[in-house]
Sequence to fold (553 residues):
Amino acid sequence: MKKKVVAMGLTAGLMMSPVLAPEAFGASNVSEKVNYNSNMGTPQFISGQLTKASSKAPETIVFDYLMEKQKAFKFKGDATLSFQVKEKQKDDLGFTYLRIQQVYKGTPVYGAVLTAHVNKDGVLTALSGAPVANLDSNKALKQSKKISKKAAIAKGETDLVSQIGSQPDYEYAHKSDSVIYVKDGKSHYAYLVNYNFLAPEPGNWNYFVDAVTGDILGKVNEIHEAGGKPGGGGTATGGTNAVGSGKGVLGDTKTLNTYLSSSTYYLQDLTRGAGVFTYDGKNRTRLPGSLWTDTDNVFNASYDAAAVDAHYYAGKTYDYYKNTHNRNSYDGSGGALKSTVHYGKNYNNAFWNGQQMVYGDGDGSTFTSLSGGLDVVAHELTHAVTDTTADLIYQNESGAINESMSDIFGTLVEFDANNNPDWEIGEDIYTPNKSGDSLRSMSNPAKYGDPDHYSVRYTGTQDNGGVHINSGIGNKAAYLLSQGGTHYGVNVSGIGNAKTGKIYYRALTQYLTPSSNYSQLRSAAVQAASDLYGAGSSEVASVNAAYNAVGVN
Fold:
């Protein structure tokens, strides 16, 4: 969570402002609506009756279509050599959707992922995501690699130390993968190196090191991004489930699912997925800390409050995704939800570090204990959902959508739990000595200086290219879609929280891709609403009106 802009000094990402071009580009098909990306020069969202009904496998249908549109997508040769299916699922509407990674001679192109939807009749209905054009003609990709993975890791680390001011204390071993990375319209062989650490400040940095020259092509702190499975910290065994109670940060009493083992009660809830576990950081910067214990199953001490809320609200977030969207934890596979409270001293932040949730106590002035806000907990856990689905790059417009999705679902979870719900973010834990204040406002982003229209978006490099700032655009659209209203002279008929949540969940998990921009989000939301309620529905009309109102074409 961030309130104000923090200078990051980051390289520009893959794309900023796309151009919408809803035009047919294939007369042989029933219908095609095409949204082009001006930076990539390729389509970023195509919808309609894109193919005729077929009994072929969905993969074959998609690859045949890509071959048919080879000139539009600007690749050469067999489509199966330029694109690889990474995921295939069938949803409850009867669609088979696939996630497809663009590759060049077997190397993945960073951020270039497509999703494809084939209906029950074997008709391709949507293709989302902009592939990188003309890789075969890129001279830089003709060069052989010159530096080793070890050298790339060292190059990135030298820059990282300069960036943060001292040698980091790493949490996990460095990860390094070969990718094709696009910078200023040019593609490079690169190493994607990840550095994950907590000190001197939390970081989950991705570095892109040119595999030929060793130059740093790009870098971004993905501290909100989840990756891998939570691990470590220990769990209680040989006992039974129990139910206790405790007082939260705001003094309210909550019922807690706990675990009794050897006369000790643990904040360990084994009734949800692989479990919900809450740890005591003891004001240090080591994770995960000690599994929280108590002797009488009543967690009423003041020191317990942050743990009570972290544990209870993680459960509430799990329940929302499971009961509303049939999603079993953040990864859809029951992944354990681990939280550490009392992290650091007077630490004014909360984050998902790629493995688990982490909450500071705040300094008592800017923040109180950050686990005390349900929308904050759900916001951060939604970053984990995003990472295991759309995997939105935490930079520029894709990063703003990433933040907006977390605000949207943070708010929807708050309403679902009937926890003093509103359209403000972090109001329960921000400036505890000042009433009526919050981190951001979804109903009125301009209240805190955030843009509520695409025409006034932030285009600088601070805040990872405005990921928190420009989330206001998506937040305002979601608010209007749910609640209705008139904005910039455009009237929007609200459709309520339930339908809004279904549309955004489908857009996030099935249509958005790592490098999505706001124009692609609009197309994704329209398509999701069409799938759920019909192309000519009032819900689709409201989605279109909401994005018209915030200036996204």
Summary: Confidence is low (pLDDT under 50) at residues 3-24, 225-232.
